[in-house]
Design brief:
34% of the residues lie in helices and 24% in strands. It starts with 8 loop residues before the first strand and ends in a 12-residue tail after the last helix. The protein is α/β, with parallel strands linked by helices and 186 residues long. 39% of the residues are buried.
Amino acid sequence: MSPKNTNQRLAWAITGSGHFVPECLELLQTFDNVDLFLSRAAEEVLQIYGYPVSELRKKIRVFRDTTASGVPVGLLYKGAYHTYVIAPATSNTVAKCVWGISDTLVTNMYAQAGKCRIKSIVFACDTAPKLLSKAPAGIVPVYPRRIDLENVEKLQEFEATEVVSDIEQLHRAVEPRMSWPRASCS
């Protein structure tokens, strides 16, 4: 391990869910030293919810899922990040994380964060048999499938991973990490 990097940042990923996306964006922008990682679906969802990537780039450094090898993932190995947050995390992303599939920028970051022993915080969207979610046209009921709920349970058992189910839990999980320097993976 190399010496502690006191300039470490928070890596925050958004996936293709609108579930609490405005609140997640609001929360992440309250912190300094945050980089934003977007799945391809997240870019579409952000646009639908009125958050064009071009506007976000004016406030924060943004990485998009545009490379086959996930070039930004290398920043984990350089000690650039102390914590990796996925908020919100779709059931698809949760399933990929649980089953070790790292074929997107977001899931590759999760896999590599684990290999670097960097804490991950996942705000899973599908955490109860019935949820209310704010869509662009208003509140809609959502009924997660049994497999979605089972995957959330499995992810809760992963080392260096904390799963949260609401925006308040997310805030309580991230806040103390903002003063958490750690050694890099290399």
